[in-house]
Amino acid sequence: xxxxxxxxxxxxxxxxxxxxxxxxxxxxxxxxxxxxxxxxxxxxxxxxxxxxxxxxxxxxxxxxxxxxxxxxxxxxxxxxxxxxxxxx
Length: 88
Fold this sequence. Notes:
58% helix, single chain, mainly alpha, Four Helix Bundle (Hemerythrin (Met), subunit A), 4 helices, 0% strand
């Protein structure tokens, strides 16, 4: 796995928020309170792959930690350079 980002948990939270909000606005998904965190991570990852926003992981590397890292990396490219999550 690639080197963990300094703010990876916060970046992951930001990525999930952006992806889920966008998916709901597009009308392609509804989330339930009972949906697990891991399910949301996998959904967000698959949605970004489907939308060609990220390159898919090789099948043998498709694990929760790697998907989380991909999502965190994706959001770092979406945030402005002066965003607080990019400064720490």
